[in-house]
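FORM 7B - TANDEM STRUCTURE REPORT

SECTION 1: FIRST PROTEIN
SEQUENCE AND C-ALPHA CELLS:
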Amino acid sequence: DALQLTGTIPTWIENFSKLKLLDLRSNSLTGSIPVDFSMLPELSYLMVSDNYLSGQVPEGLGSRSNLFVVAFHHNNITGDAGQLCQAGVRLLTTDCDDIACSCCVTCCDSGSCYQDLLWDMLEYSRGL
C-alpha cells in the first residue's frame, strides 16, 4: 500500500490470472473499480481503500466464491454489497453511509478504521 499511485486502476491487471492479492490501499487512484476484476479466478483479497475511487460496487465480484477480503472504505463507492455477502466474503469493510451492506464487518464512515480492520483480519486468519 501507499505506492503513490495516481490515475485509474489499469485494466491490464486482469491479465494476471494467478493474482491472489491486490493491495492498492492508500494511494491517489481515481475512476471506478474495473468490472474486469471479477474475471480473475484466483483473486481472494481486493483492498482498494483510501483512494478517490467512485462508481458502483462491481456486480461481477459477487460471482466469486473465493473472494475472502474486500476493503472499499474511504472512497466514493456507492451501491449495494449484498452480492458480496451472498458470495461468502468473510471480511468486508465499506463506508456504510454510501454502501448498503448487511454483512460488513467494519464500517468506516469517519476517522480511521485500520485498527479494527487489522484486528478483524487477524481473527479471520485464525479461523482458516
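SECTION 2: SECOND PROTEIN
SEQUENCE AND C-ALPHA CELLS:
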Amino acid sequence: MFKLLAFATSVVAFTKPLATRSPVAPLQAVELANGAVSFDRVCREWRCKYSGDKVTSESLEACCGVLAEYLPEIKKMEGVTVNRLICGGCLDFKVMVTQPLEGYGPWEEAGHPPEADFIAKLKAIDGVSQVETQTITNMVV
C-alpha cells in the first residue's frame, strides 16, 4: 500500500514511460484526463496550520521567518518559482515550489532539499499543526 502511495505522489506517476521518450530530449508536457489537460511543471507544496489571529499571530510570523531563511536556497534551483499562500480564514500557511518537469525528477530523488529541514522547523513552532507535503501539478492557465 505504501509503495503504491509513494508511486502515486511521485513525478513518475505523471511522466511518460522511458521507452516512449528520448533519453536526451527534455520532457514534454504530460496529458491527463484523456488529453483535456496537460502540464509541464510540477509543484512541491509544504503546508501547515498556524494559530491565532492572522494580524497578530506569532506562529504565522515564525512560519514566514522559516520561509525567509530558506528562500535564497530554494531560488537557486533552475527554473523554480516560489509562491507563499496564507489564508486568514482557515489559518493555512503554504509554500509552493514549482519547477519544470525535467528538473523535478532529480530534486525528488534528492529528497526535495531543503524540505526536511524546512518541515522540521515548521513542526518546532508553537501553535503550528498539520504540517504536510504534497506533489501536484501547477500550471498557469
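SECTION 3: OBSERVATIONS ON SECOND PROTEIN
The radius of gyration is 17 Å.
The longest strand covers residues 41-49.

SECTION 4: SIGNATURE
Preparer initials: ____
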